[in-house]
Amino acid sequence: MSLAKSYLMLSGAILSLLAGSVSARADEGMWTFDHLPKAALQKNYGFQPDAAWIQHVVQSSARLAEGCSASFVSADGLVMTNHHCANSCLSALSDKTHDYFRDGFHTQSLAEERQCPGMELDRLDGITDVSSQVAQATKGRQGAAYNAAVQEVESRLTKACAAGDAEHWRCDMVALYHGGQTALYRYRRYKDVRVVMAPEQDIAFFGGDPDNFNYPRYDIDLSMLRVYEDGKPVHTPFLQFDPKGPKAGDLVFTSGNPGRTQRGLPAAALAFQRDIANPAIIDIFSVREGMLWQYARESAEHARQAEDTLFGVQNALKSYSGTEAALRSSDIVAQRAKEDAALQAWIDADPARRAEYGQPFAVVDKAIGVQKDLFARNLALHMALHGLAGDAMTLVEGARERAKPDAKRHAGYHDAQLGEIETELAASEPVYPELETASLALALTSLRQILGADDPLVRTALGNDSPDAVAARLVKETRLADPAIRTALWHGGQAAIDKATDPMVIFARTLFPAYDALRERMLNEVSAPLHKAEGDIARARFAQAQAAGRLDAIYPDATFSPRLSFGTVQGWRQDGADIPPFTDFAGMYRHATGSEPFALPKRWLDAKARLDLSTHLDFVSTNDIVGGNSGSPVLDRQGHAVGLIFDGNLPSLAGDLYYDIGSNRAVSTDTSAIIAALRTVYAEPALADELVRGHR
Amino acid sequence: MSLAKSYLMLSGAILSLLAGSVSARADEGMWTFDHLPKAALQKNYGFQPDAAWIQHVVQSSARLAEGCSASFVSADGLVMTNHHCANSCLSALSDKTHDYFRDGFHTQSLAEERQCPGMELDRLDGITDVSSQVAQATKGRQGAAYNAAVQEVESRLTKACAAGDAEHWRCDMVALYHGGQTALYRYRRYKDVRVVMAPEQDIAFFGGDPDNFNYPRYDIDLSMLRVYEDGKPVHTPFLQFDPKGPKAGDLVFTSGNPGRTQRGLPAAALAFQRDIANPAIIDIFSVREGMLWQYARESAEHARQAEDTLFGVQNALKSYSGTEAALRSSDIVAQRAKEDAALQAWIDADPARRAEYGQPFAVVDKAIGVQKDLFARNLALHMALHGLAGDAMTLVEGARERAKPDAKRHAGYHDAQLGEIETELAASEPVYPELETASLALALTSLRQILGADDPLVRTALGNDSPDAVAARLVKETRLADPAIRTALWHGGQAAIDKATDPMVIFARTLFPAYDALRERMLNEVSAPLHKAEGDIARARFAQAQAAGRLDAIYPDATFSPRLSFGTVQGWRQDGADIPPFTDFAGMYRHATGSEPFALPKRWLDAKARLDLSTHLDFVSTNDIVGGNSGSPVLDRQGHAVGLIFDGNLPSLAGDLYYDIGSNRAVSTDTSAIIAALRTVYAEPALADELVRGHR
């Protein structure tokens, strides 16, 4: 799976967790370009990036608004990113006679390059620390007045920054260190992005799900785009493309936009994930995987129905299992406990700090205690509220929430969000009754297994029937598969819900009191105190570093804004074996069994004799990346592009929570493979020349 | 699930682990009757069992050779044990016109009591410490000479003990503390055991798998047997049956035969189970559960085919998950690490001890390191070698092993064990091709997921095909489903295997080198050093306690021989809620939805109005029990029977490894429920009177 997708997946998880930032260790860190760890780089690598180097990297890097990173690789607006970052574009351009996933996308001239609908690319222009403006504007304000002041200053600063030209400039106020620092990020905004080249899906995602997050890998997860303005390619700074790729042991950088991390979680929250949350999620998802796997085997039609869901479940399982295995094999919890204690001691040592930050770790402990009691119940209930049962609960909950003033509603039901719900309810996504029944029956079986048959919630859900009988009856008799019915019930509000006779709506209505009570406890006793403590901890860490004059030794949690990470090209040791850093074309051909997902495209089979099989294909490095870094360029000391980030290894999945140099590895496609593919496999010498030359 | 069954299940697990014994904490311990913790009982409960009390309990207790415990409850040979301990008897006696599981078994006179085929009951008569005889006989001997000496002394002592009357006496030499102490256990042996009464399976195992290992429970897991000699009921000491049952907070004892524990595992081995082994097993079994669950939903025929396997998988999952949750929520690993360090320090403090015990924990660390590297591979491979693929590997391995001298063969292939293999290969167990294919395909999919597509073992297993294609072809084309073919291949030896063209045999033959190499490493680098270290640690602990004169503060690992445990009737706290110690008939009726497995037998529905619904049904106590304790009587201070052990709660599943008074609970049927059932539900006043009166 791509980093972008896995990030989305993880961010959608129902866990309620914390965030913060801690001191960085060797090669750890996603650094803002205005606070690079120059001392550490000098000490560990004898390298000191100067202002020109930094500015060049910043201006050659880019962010795709959909959730990826990218880089300019020629003076004529050519952009390199991942294949999976262009998925929506290739999908939109494909039609009955063109399947650009299967066949790839190729152009011979600018005229053939086609605009990607809705794609936006942003290029960082500058960073301004606006902490003092924000502090001044919010000084002495609390609660609603504080929020209003923040909104006012944000609106004022971002408007001034875009200078009335929102078409070309985008300005984001970014809260770093959970509000310890605030920066204004100004981007040059490009909305005419065209696809130039994409290989076949079968080489871009060669190995499919079995290889996903694993290494060795053999993928060319590449797409080439071109940015236009006024109908012509733009001219910007760009990264010189090095067709030789990196060597083992090289210092390399990644310039990208990591999406979200929680690097400062207190030890108690990490232990909760390791001991309670992840195991429970892995168990329940594993059973679901087995169910879907067998469902898909029953017929070609069932395989088609279950494909997406099965892929999603397997992907989530890899994420959670990878994180869990890493957490278990690491001493991060014990380390963090010491850091937590040290921070609390620093707070306690000063009355002003005590007043400012209080006892956030005690707050965390208490909230986690409640979460331990509620987690399994919450998980099991939410697993049952998927599909049509989920729609039914949205209708029931939505009716109640919309009756409240906007400010008092639960997250997801604010006026600004209703359109999204309505679009989803009105969408004609197919409903497969057999799959729907199997899913609901399994979820209800798990609910009963987890909570016990006598639990009031289980009794409410099942009455005196078996999970299978309840699911079969609900799916058979409900009419919620019809978008018109869903929409009518939505617009009918509380009155329509109250008098609905649809059995799935009745099911949701009956469960609602228990669902609502549980959510209230999760919000009031878990999420809210954790969120408050999260901010206090992160701000205390920032203040401590600032007071000690060592801001370049800490980095803020990821915020999907431009960051630089550094590391070296090197393998790691796993299960008693050394995993080497590079793969090559020879390995790729050995890896190809001919059966999906290990079937190479015909062009690759045909090209075998013409390729230098020792050419490096993919490599791993110690760079600290997470989802959102997909498409990031890998740079050498000269700032030349030597690779293209597209994944992490399995242990890197814990990168959300912490970085472990022993096992966490970023996975890139080597630029030497890209050049060989363009020249030898795809016969696109012009594009290859543009990369090597730096212009068309 | 019953304790007896769960024990069998766990003992069949492929984990290679250690055993030992550590100092007991409050209520912990499975004590031999000749070393009861009298000081602790006096201190904690103000109770001192005298010699008469002990002898009475010993002589009223019994062991069923199949793997259960029992007790005499009248002067006329009446025996109380669990329903699930009489499963094989009820099954053997049932026929086309009698279903004693569905309907129960009832008698009105001695003449109607029917002999249970093959059932043997043993009653402990005496214990003799023979450590010095064993030490003398083995003095100065090593290796084969040592083993021969042990065999010689065992044969001599047990023969003398049975005094030439093996029909009536059974003598077992029991190695306690892994050889730190050896005792001779003499049992009176009874081979005419008849069934007197058994309730319906639907009340004996009410709640089925969903309730299994959970609590609150509502089961009457009872069967009444009677022991005969010379065609008449025997007269033995017996426990007075107390029809009132216990009260909350009462001190209670269990007298039974715990099967096997590993209470002395070093911290490294516990951590390995917690962090590596259990999670991997739970993951792979969970996926299998989901597959089987869906397979069973496909048709009534599939449900029938998958039923046993699904139940077995769910039961194993509960065992492992319960153990895992307990390990995660406990500080046992940290505690044990301190105990390990202290024991090593004690060893190190004396040259003689250093020579005797060495550095066993360092040996463990090294072996566990290798096991970490091999575990996932070993697990995934063994999951694939089930069913017909497993038979094929048995044939391939068996041919090779039988060509060796007996002493050099691997475990399972010694001459004395070949009959068992031959019986299994010749058995006409049905093979369901669809289920067989699904199982193998899933196992091969997991193998590829876990090891990666490029792993040589995976390449050997799959070639260039998908897991599904390989499994479908093998199951379709093999003839191993035919017992005659399997038997012929077995008897054909290596020559038959070498020239076999059956694709499943070829599959096993091809995998054999990798399988064999892996097994050799597991044996030589993991099991053998762990086993050696296990003995050293256990013997060192025993010697340390002996030297300190505190043998009554430690207890040996369970050995399926008579033990006494003690504790109090009390609930526990779970997920923020207090679980009360008792259930009652009112709860049972509330629990009954009418759908299986929550459907009560008709007799119970009819009797509702006549029953006192506040009668206690089941209860939990802190007694330290494990599998093998099924059927143990629960006794009060007077030595009266107040309950009947039949299960443990979920946290008790970690009882194999350690005892945690905070959550580990034994689950019993209350004697007050037994009396009410006999009098009011089953109208068996004579049997009830015999219990209360103590004779017919």
Structure description:
2 copies of one chain form a homodimer. Chain A is of the alpha+beta class and 696 residues long. Chain A has 2 domains: 3-120 and 191-262 and 557-693, Thrombin, subunit H (Beta Barrel); 267-533, no CATH class. Chain A has 25 helices and 19 strands. In chain A, the strands form 3 sheets. In chain A, strands 1, 2, 3, 4, 5, 6, 7, 8, 9 and 10 form a 10-stranded antiparallel sheet that branches. In chain A, strands 12-11-17-18-19-16-15 form a 7-stranded antiparallel sheet. In chain A, strands 13-14 form a two-stranded antiparallel sheet. In chain A, a hairpin with a 4-residue loop joins strand 6 (169-176) and strand 7 (181-190). In chain A, helix 24 (671-681) packs antiparallel against helix 25. The two termini of chain A are 33 Å apart. Chains A, B: GO terms for molecular function: dipeptidyl-peptidase activity; serine-type aminopeptidase activity. Chains A, B: Catalyzes the removal of dipeptides from the N-terminus of oligopeptides. Chains A, B: Residues 1-26 form the signal peptide. Chains A, B: One of its GO terms (biological process) is proteolysis.
